[in-house]
Write the C-alpha cells for this entry.
Amino acid sequence: MALVPYVEEEDATGVVREVYDDIKRTRGLARVPAFWRAIAHRPEYLRSEWTKLRTILETGTLDRRTKEMIAVAVSATNNCDYCLRSHTDALRALGTTDAEIVELMSVVDFFNGSNAVSSGLRIEYEPPVLAEPDAQPDPA
Amino acid sequence: MALVPYVEEEDATGVVREVYDDIKRTRGLARVPAFWRAIAHRPEYLRSEWTKLRTILETGTLDRRTKEMIAVAVSATNNCDYCLRSHTDALRALGTTDAEIVELMSVVDFFNGSNAVSSGLRIEYEPPVLAEPDAQPDPA
Amino acid sequence: MALVPYVEEEDATGVVREVYDDIKRTRGLARVPAFWRAIAHRPEYLRSEWTKLRTILETGTLDRRTKEMIAVAVSATNNCDYCLRSHTDALRALGTTDAEIVELMSVVDFFNGSNAVSSGLRIEYEPPVLAEPDAQPDPA
Amino acid sequence: MALVPYVEEEDATGVVREVYDDIKRTRGLARVPAFWRAIAHRPEYLRSEWTKLRTILETGTLDRRTKEMIAVAVSATNNCDYCLRSHTDALRALGTTDAEIVELMSVVDFFNGSNAVSSGLRIEYEPPVLAEPDAQPDPA
Amino acid sequence: MALVPYVEEEDATGVVREVYDDIKRTRGLARVPAFWRAIAHRPEYLRSEWTKLRTILETGTLDRRTKEMIAVAVSATNNCDYCLRSHTDALRALGTTDAEIVELMSVVDFFNGSNAVSSGLRIEYEPPVLAEPDAQPDPA
Amino acid sequence: MALVPYVEEEDATGVVREVYDDIKRTRGLARVPAFWRAIAHRPEYLRSEWTKLRTILETGTLDRRTKEMIAVAVSATNNCDYCLRSHTDALRALGTTDAEIVELMSVVDFFNGSNAVSSGLRIEYEPPVLAEPDAQPDPA
C-alpha cells in the first residue's frame, strides 16, 4: 500500500477533476494511473506536474519511443519499480521487443559502470583528437 | 589530475597496444581517450571493457544516436563530468542541436523527479485500463 | 527476511542490552525497531550509531518535524523502503497530513529533477545579482 | 563552461522573455540565474518548469526555509554543485547560520548512512509497538 | 516476475548455449542464475558481460572475498535486491559471519553518510600533513 | 571554497579541542583534515562522528586495507571528490599499487553496471542450485 491514500476519481473535484479528465482523454485510459491519484492531495502540484509531462512528451523533435527509452534508462539507474513497470509497458505498446529492452539495458549497464570508474578515478576529459581532422569525431 | 597516472601510448605493449590500436582505428582518433589510458593498468580488464563497448554500440537495432542519448541520460543522473562531456560531444558530432540536448535533459529532469515521488510514496503500479480495450495503451 | 538474523531482545547482553533499554526508554517503545536488532551483531557499532542519532535529533535548533522531513527527503532520493515507512510514520505521529507529505514530495521531485539538469548540463553557479542590492536575495 | 550556451536576456523573445521577466520580478533579481538561461533553448519546458517551481514554493503549509532545507538535503545526496551553492545562498538569505547548515548536514549524513544499511541488509519495517499504546509513537 | 521472460536453458543455442555451459562449469552450478537468463536475449552482450566478470574475478591480486565485499558495498549503496542477495550468499559460502556482514555494512554506512556531507558542504581535500613526515600517513 | 568556513585549530575549545587532539594523535597528523574542521560548527556531532569512525575502523575482523577499499568503492559510486582523494591516499599509504586501484575500480564498474540491469529488469533472485550439492556454491 502506498504511504498516502489515493484521491479516487469519484472524490475528485475542481482542478483535480479537470486534470483527471485530461489524463484519461489524452491517454485513452478508463482509469487514472496511481501516480496521479497519489499526488492529487496537492491539486496545483498535480496540475503543474501533468502540464510539464505533456510539454515534455508532446513537443520537440525526439520521438516518443526515444523519450520512453530515456525514461527507462533513468528509472533503471534510480531503481524505481513503478516507473520501470510503467515505461516498459509503454515501450511494449510502441512495439519494442524483449531483445530491444535488453539492448537498452546493456547501454544502461555500460554507462553506469563506466560512470563509476570515470568519477572514481577523477579522469579528466580531453576533447577528441581526430586522425583525419575533417572526419566526424567519435569520442567515448 | 586523475588518481592514477595514464598508461601513455608510447609505453603500451602487448594487449594494451592491441586495444589502443583498435580504439584509434575504429574511432578514427589520433589519440586514445583518457578513460582507456587510465584503466590500462589492468590489460585484461581494458580488453574486456573495450570489447563490451564495441558489442553494445555496434550490434542490435537501436541507432547510435539513441544509444548516445541513453549514455547522456545515465551520466546526468549519476553526475559524471567526463561522461557528460564525452557523450554530448558525440551527440553533437551526430548533428544534435542545443535545443535537442535540452529536450533530452527535460526528459531526464521529469523522470528523476517522478522516480523520487513514486519511490518516496511507495506507489504500486497497476497495468493501464484502456478506455477502448483494443486501442494502444499509453501508461505513465 | 533480512540478510542477517536479528539479535532479539531476549538474547541481548552487555552493551547491546544497555542500548536496547535506552532505545525503548527514550522512544517510549515496547519493542526495539528492526534496524537496531539487525546491526546489533556489532555491539560497539550499535552504540556509536545510536549515540549519533540521539545527538543529531536531540541537539541543535532545527525542530524534530523538520529533521524528520529531511529524513524522508533523503530516503525518497535513495529509495529506502524501511526508512520511508519509518519516517513517514514519525511525521504522522507529529501531526503531518497527507497533503503535507505530498507537499514534501513535490519539493523532493523538483530538486531531484533540477539537480539532474544542472549537473547534466554542467551549469555553473553565479551568485545572485539583486535588482535592489539592499533587498533580501532569493536565488534558485 | 556549460554544455550548451545560455540564451541571454538580450536574445530572449516570446515565451522566454515573459518567463525571464517573471523570474526577475518574483525574485527581485537584476539577472536571470544561469539554470533558466540554460534550459531556455526549449521555451515551453522553461515555462512549465518555472510554473512548477512557483507552485511548489508558493503554495502549501511548509514554510520557505523548510523547503530550502529539503532542497539542500536532496542536492547533497545527489552531489549537485550548482544546486548546493544556490540553495545554501537562499538559506543564508533566510538567516540560517553555519551551525544550522552543519546541523542540516548531520541529518543528511545519518540518513544517507542508515538508508544504505537498511537497504543493504534488506531490513523489513515493522510498525512501532508503543510501551504505552495511547502515547505518541517515535519510531526510527 | 522480471520485465522480460528468461531465455531458459532448454531454449539456448549457439553463443547462449556456450556461455550457459561455461557459467555452470565454472561455478559448479546445476542451473544458470536468473541474471544471465534475463540478458540472453542479446547473445553477444551476454558473452561480453560474462567474459568481463570472469576477467574481473579471476585475475589480479585482490582476493575473492574482498571482491565480493566490494560487490556488496556497491549493491547496498545502489539498493539492488538481486545483487545483495546474490553476493551475501557468495560471502557466506566463503565463510563470512553475520558479525562480519554487519561490520562491512558499518563501513558502507559511514562512507555513504560522510560522502553526502563532504559533497554537500563542497569540502576541498588537502593532502595530509604528517606530524612526523617520515611516518605512514593516515588521512580520512 | 567550502560552503561553511572551517573551525580552525587555533579557535577550537572544549569538545572540539578534545576531538581535534584525538584526531591528530590517533592519525599521526600535524593538521586536522578539512572534513572535521567543517563539521566542528556542531561540536557534539563532531564527537559522535569521530567516535563512530574510530569504532568502525578499529574494531572487528576486516583489515584496514579492506575497509579503505570499501570506502573507495562507496565513494566512486557516489562520486565524492574529497572522499576519493582521501581514501586513495590512504590506500597508497598502505602499499596499494596503481594496478590494484584499477582492479578495485573494475569491480566497482562491473557491479554498478549489473546493479542497474538487475534492478532495471526487476530480476528476482533464486538461491543457487549446485551441481554437486556438497560443494561450495559460487552464485553471481
